[in-house]
């Protein structure tokens, strides 16, 4: 009944609509809606109710959703806020994560737990900035030093794995990939410089004028940049995720210069409405539909989930030792480690590439995605509990006693 393109899209959109309503029932736990989008996708997928069938048109919408998600990650990369020590610590921490990931992945290969070292290693080094941003914003941490460190860790944990995907996991030879990456980097720097230098008043006025009309040029410009940069990356043999991320950076640099604050807030609101209201949920629901539940039902896959959860925390948590001079309190550092180890969107993307390239077993992919879902479900909740405990343990500063004016 629903296995036509229209019927499949209908059920996917219904799942996308229901997911936030279900998430609202778990508001105290702050479970992101994307987790329920994946779960509902599994439910309507072939391994449970078998109500839908994926076809090229649906897969295209899913790819657009993934590109848009990565575009938003690039858009959220505010270098002015994280540059300096937070960014330097985040890069050093990520490099340590890569070393730990490669060592652990090599050990897992030696014991025949996994098949391909690079895919698993890079999946373990990701951080879900897009998932964490609403959480730290709602907790009022975004503008605090702790929040700045999370922004830096999340930005690096999304940008550098995407570079690694383009360089090592694109399916091309490493030298060819390096040359293609260099060419794309030159084109990207040119686009960034153009965005920084471009101050056309008439174009800016037209962008703002159409925010309240059918023109919506801000949104159309975003879509053009996503299409342009992903096309360039694909033509160079690189993963389209790299193009989407750079498009987000270029877009932020262009629109954030010279536009009124109220106009930018409206633009961001509309961009988030289009992204999180339509195409991004389709990606996560389709991820659930493609989730191999039968592979996960295998005893080996089930055992891999808790293993990968622990490994995620080790790979992304140990580098937090670098922050002991910047983040006071053991509970606060543990909270930072838990936030750093929260990852799902890029884990899904890397696993999808690995399975398509025949370099990752479906059981490993299912277990990694399952571990990512658990990290999104549990790690932020534990981190917030630790932060509240740390804040409760700090006695309030006693008010100073005013001097007696009679003395």
Description:
By secondary structure, this protein is an all-alpha fold. It is 74% helix and 0% strand. It contains 18 helices and no strands. It has helices spanning 5-25, 33-44, 56-75, 79-82, 85-110, 117-124, 129-138, 145-168, 174-197, 201-209, 217-235, 240-255, 261-290, 293-296, 299-317, 330-340, 345-356, 362-393. The radius of gyration is 22 Å and the shape is globular. Mean pLDDT is 83; it is low at 396-407.
Helix-strand layout with pairing:
Elements: H1 5-25, H2 33-44, H3 56-75, H4 79-82, H5 85-110, H6 117-124, H7 129-138, H8 145-168, H9 174-197, H10 201-209, H11 217-235, H12 240-255, H13 261-290, H14 293-296, H15 299-317, H16 330-340, H17 345-356, H18 362-393
Summarize it:
The protein is an all-alpha fold and 407 residues long. The protein contains 18 helices and no strands.
- The parts where pLDDT drops under 50 for at least 5 residues are 396-407
| Annotation, overall tally of beta strands | 0
Cα-atom Rg, whole angstroms?
Answer: 22 Å
Helix content: over 70%
